[in-house]
Amino acid sequence: MTHDGNAAAALLARNLEVRPDKTAYVFGAKEPSYRGLARDAARMAHLLTTRGVVPGDRVALALEDSPAFVTAFLGTILAGGVATAMNTTLTAEEYVPILEDCGARLVCADPEHPAASAAGDRLIPCARTGPDLAGLPDSFQAVPRAADDLAFMLFSSGSTGRPKGVPHRQGDCFVPAETWGRPILGLDENSRIFSASKLYFAYGLESSLLINLSVGATALLFPDKPGPYELFEAIGSFRPTHFFCVPTLYNLMLRALEPGMDLSSLKVCFSAGEALPAALFEEWRRVAGLDLVDGIGSTEACNVFLSNRPGSARPGTSGLPVPGYEARIVDQDGRDLPPGQAGDLLVRGPGIAPYYWNRPDKTRETMLPDGWLHTGDVYVRDADGYYSHQGRSDDMIKAGAHWVAPMRVEDALRRHPAVHECAVAACKVEGLDRPCAFVVPVAGTEPGPALVRELRAHAAKLLPGYMCPVRVEFRRDLPKTPTGKIQRFRLRAEAAGKTN
Question: Could you tell me which CATH class the domain 395-496 is placed in?
Answer without folding.
Answer: alpha beta
